[in-house]
Records
---
Amino acid sequence: MNTRGLSLDTIPPLLIPLRFFLTAPLFGICAALLIFYQGSDIWLSRWSFSSLALTHLVTLGFMLMVMIGGLYQFIPVMVGQLIPAGQYLAPVIHSLLVIGTFSLAAAFLSHFIFLYVLALISLALSLSLFAFSLIPLLIAQLNKHLLVYLLRILLVVLAITIAFGLYMLFSYSFPDSLINYRLYTDIHALWGLLGWTVLLIMAVSSQVIPMFYVTPEFSKNSLKLLSMAIVLTLIMLSFSLLLIKDKLFSGIFFELLLSIELLVFSLYSLWLIEHRKRKLADVTISFFRIAHFSLLVVIILWWFYAQVISAEEELLKTQMEFILAISLVYGLALSAIIGLLQKIVPFLIFLHLQRLSLKHPGTISLVPNMKKIISTKNSKIQFLFHCLSLFLLIFSVFFPQWVWLAAILMMINFIWLWKNLLQGIFLYQKNRKQILNYNYSYET
């Protein structure tokens, strides 16, 4: 592991990131239960309220939850500064995000206006508090840090994504509002799936892949240029959808440009992975391979969907829409995030126990190896469950009678992840107690 340039003395209390990490799999389990309950109806239309509930359980409940927890941990280690008031704001942000996500999913399923309002207020407060807490760091003179630069862009993209979402949520809260839901949903999905998701993976990959897998460093200038190009392309594509009357040429041009940008990022990441200096067997790197291969598949399938399938082939268009969504969310984002958690949680536990042992001489042997915190065997099982559930989700779109099996495998995938994280926490508590007790026995 390459820890050069890291500020290992500036780390937040362990509970701050872990409360987000431990909550995220529970939303994944809820998403799987929803698929199991809805059965084949879940794939009838991406405009159905059950599909909208499913999407937000995963994107807000899992992806955003892990992202916030990860940033609370990564920013101090990478830039040497804690996020201000983290101990006080993190529990509030976490609680509001939990309430808002569950309220939104329940609102889509029940259509209770009160739940839409509760979701609107909770999510707006949660994300506003987190964004405002980052402002001192993001406006500081930290331009040399690639992570800070990418975070600035990522938060702008997230703000745009959330703004479109809150606008539609506001309209749901007041049913008399007249807006083009399908148009705004397309733009919301565009910024969320191809903007926020890809830039999130870019920010994570730029730090995690060189750190844990000893690959060549990502080119800072290349990633800065590429991230800005993606945002500008998304802006122009959004304007073409909203304002330009003749959208055919402009839409194809910007879609082609965005495809090239995503292709460059994916191939570049895969090239770095294959050129890592220590090519030891590590199953967690396979999660990142799956993530980037999924992005390549999305690019190919998108052009097939956009240029080959006719409007009359309604069933096939609906199926392709779900395949694209599954490949982006489950294949790209969740693969990278689950792979990240297999590395970052053991690293955090190891780091906190190591710092504690330095204060209590003679206890260094009580600090477990990272591979004992989440074992290679457990990570291999996690990878198997993840790949099977990804394959079965895609398979069930074409053969909906098997959706129940896909839901069960998806549920097992998140349960196994939760179990691995909990085992790591229990090991931390056990060894922490031993270190403290050893010190007490030694002194007396």
---
Amino acid sequence: MLREERYNYIVNEVKIRNRVLLTDIARKLNVSEDTIRRDLNHLDEQGKIKKVHGGAISSSFHLYSYREDQIYAHEHKSTIATKAVKLLHENCVVLMSGGTTNLELARLIPDNIRLTVFTPSLPVAMQLIAHPLVETIFIGGRLSKDAQIALGGDAIRTLSHLKADILFMGTGNLDLESGLTEFDWEVVQLKKAMMESAKKTVVLTISEKINSSQRFKICATGEVHTLITELEPSHTLLAPFREKGLELM
């Protein structure tokens, strides 16, 4: 694979997944880690990605306020968020994970609905406080500099005292057989705790992330109640998830 082809692949993966590991990219492209490390340095210098320890993240992970031009597949994510808003009701208690789709959902919450929203995501919390009737409760803990999300025992202990009506969970990887997966073990533990603390789990994802998996499992596909993508529920890509019993939106 030519250098420019590697650059394009890396940038696209970062846009889709938000976070990538250097080791994963090297393995998928069948090149050395040193080669990918140099590629990441170059792309970081060009402002196309942000290099972090062990990999790279999207610049949209560092949004404290809404910036449409920095959100990958914004139109699709807006479609997903618009569908998700329909699940909210007055005085609903909501859990929200991080990610740019949840950031878009936080932006689109109507100003006339009263909610209590718990989130460990700093960007999502900052977006939520713009809504006058939304009581925003930040789930604190050790803050990840990469994902800007609270991790660790403090966050998980707080979650153990909750039972939210609904969890809106973003994901980087969803596969019918592997379920929901991530490469970050601490993020997996946080998301497991979030699922245990909610009556209903709703996964928000663009269709590009379907049929992909990572090393650590959050849950089986059948443990998800609702799957929301930008696609119509009748789309053939989603048919296997319907057969697994998921509600599709």
